[in-house]
Specification:
By secondary structure, this protein is an alpha/beta fold. The chain is 54% helix and 10% strand.
């Protein structure tokens, strides 16, 4: 049976309040708590709660045949806990079914994978801990912020121990290939890749309510019919989208919830598809090839690149300025500074500065609380200026120096450990090589000379002297002398008698006796 993998992104940023130039150095409350609470509660009522209830009912209705997966940013979980605990409870209810997978991502829904490996690793670890705390799962699958991916990012994700990662099935990456198969990372093939089928995903996420769309209205029957038109060799359809698609981006009046409720039943009735989670798909399917992505891609806009967040000078300046203080923040003990540091990294802040007002302009306007990108930039830079002042005051150069020395020590210890392991591995390799030579019968017969006298004597006591004499024909002087010197007096006498008796021996007999003796030695040792 072929599979559909439903994955939903759940994210809410901590939006900044209006922060003016004259607030710098005076006020440190950067985030619009009232607006953040209002927006979260609105989205909870329109999307999270009804969508979670729908997914839960579908799982119960189909006895676990219907499955789904979510990645929830740390900033979203923080707001659920603070403003809407009932949303957290509804996700916990989904987790209790055993048919929902929670994925790892960056805590801040940040772009740290593009700038700082250290910060990237820390944020993923923080978000994983929250997933474990709230939902009792250890994430096996990773999705980066906005499905951002490259070969290098995938290598880092594999280094963190993940088996599977999600990304966009971008045309300029796949070319003639289909996204409906399992792929792997080009640098580390152990990391398996699930690629978004953007055409079918966007039919639901973006085109569902567009009356100008030639396929409007989209019904569950119509969607199932499209699935049947897909080549039977293609194994998996990855439907990746924002969870806010249901009720927020596509309002209930559009029929989006009716579509969601009806879709699984029509899939089961009309197609040979079932539903799977990312980790299940990764275990079940075979990799067809690696995908080569030298430059980062994402699921944003028609270009599927980074220009939604880092496509102009405003964004680049803000992004670079933020990460210039990373090392100082690391040595600030103030927990509020650490929290603000995470929230200021959220990718949305840079998204608001986007100046792409062409094919995807409406999408950017919909999500942008600012009148213009320039207002977004000025507001963010005012906040960042105050944050830098706070960091400079809190930063302890002595602590930083000690920390740097500790890091140096850790790195040296790691290199020493690595060198020692390499040396040990090489020694073991040489030992294994010698053992293999011993196992090769006649080819390894001369290696007997390398056995210690104690072991050689032990072996010779169990070897027939007649066989030994034949096997030693045409062997090296060193081997003959060592063997003879480790024989007992009675065995030496017998050896001499057999030497006189077997002056002419066939090569095949010599080979046969050598192989026989090597088998005996292997049994002994």
């Amino acid at each position: 049976m072929r599979s559909i993998c439903f994955y939903f992104q759940v994210h809410q940023p901590y939006r900044l309040r209006t922060y003016r130039f004259f607030d710098i150095g005076e006020r440190h409350d950067y985030f619009d708590e009232i607006n953040n609470a209002l927006i979260l509660k609105r989205v909870a009522e329109k999307c999270y709660l009804p969508a979670n209830e729908t997914i839960y009912n579908l799982i119960k209705k189909f006895g676990g045949r219907f499955k789904a997966s979510y990645s929830i940013s740390g900033t979203a979980m923080d707001q659920f806990e603070k403003f809407a605990p009932e949303v957290l409870d509804s996700f916990k209810k989904l987790a209790s079914t055993g048919h929902v997978e929670f994925l790892a991502e960056t805590y801040s829904h940040s772009l740290s994978s593009l700038k700082s490996k250290d910060e990237f690793f820390k944020q993923v670890d923080l978000q994983k801990k929250q997933i474990k705390k709230f939902f009792g799962q250890e994430p096996k699958t990773f999705r980066n912020t906005e499905l951002i991916y490259s070969d290098g990012i995938g290598e880092m994700v594999a280094e963190m121990g993940f088996d599977t990662m999600l990304t966009e099935g971008a045309k300029h990456v796949l070319g003639w290939k289909s996204p409906n198969f399992l792929y792997c990372n080009a640098i580390n093939p152990k990391l398996k890749m699930l690629l978004k089928n953007f055409s079918l995903s966007d039919d639901i996420a973006f085109r569902f309510s567009q009356r100008s769309w030639q396929d409007w209205p989209l019904t569950a029957e119509k969607f199932a019919g499209w699935l049947n038109q897909i080549d039977s060799k293609q194994e998996i359809i990855n439907l990746f989208m924002d969870y806010e698609t249901f009720g927020e981006h596509q309002w209930p009046e559009t029929g989006i919830f009716d579509f969601l409720k009806a879709m699984p039943e029509k899939v089961f009735e009309m197609t040979d598809f079932g539903f799977t989670t990312p980790s299940e798909a990764s275990e079940k399917l075979q990799v067809v090839s690696a995908i080569h992505v030298p430059y980062p891609i994402s699921w944003a806009d028609e270009e599927r690149d980074l220009t939604a967040w880092l496509g102009n000078e405003l964004q680049d300046e803000a992004f670079d300025k933020l990460y210039q203080i990373e090392e100082k923040v690391k040595y600030c003990s103030d927990p509020q500074i650490q929290k603000d540091w995470h929230y200021l990294q959220t990718s949305d802040h840079f998204y608001y500065m986007c100046t792409k007002w062409f094919s995807d302009g409406d999408v950017h306007k919909y999500f942008n609380p600012y009148g213009t990108p320039y207002e977004a930039f000025i507001n963010y830079m005012n906040v960042l200026s105050d944050f830098i002042i706070r960091v400079d005051k809190c930063y302890d150069p002595v602590k930083a120096r000690v920390g740097a020395l500790k890091e140096q020590g850790t790195q040296i210890a790691s290199r020493v450990k690595s060198s020692a392991k390499k040396h040990t591995d090489q020694s073991l390799k040489r030992m294994r090589s010698k053992l293999e030579e011993l196992k090769e019968g006649e080819a390894g017969f001369e290696e007997i000379a390398k056995l210690s006298n104690t072991r050689l004597k032990e072996a010779l006591r169990k070897i027939n002297t007649r066989d030994l004499v034949i096997a030693l024909k045409n062997s090296s002087k060193e081997l003959r002398e060592k063997v003879y010197g480790n024989l007992g007096k009675r065995a030496q006498k017998n050896f001499d008698e057999f030497e006189r008796k077997f002056r002419d021996v066939k090569k095949t007999d010599v080979k046969k006796q050598r192989e026989k003796i090597m088998r005996q030695i292997r049994k002994i040792f």
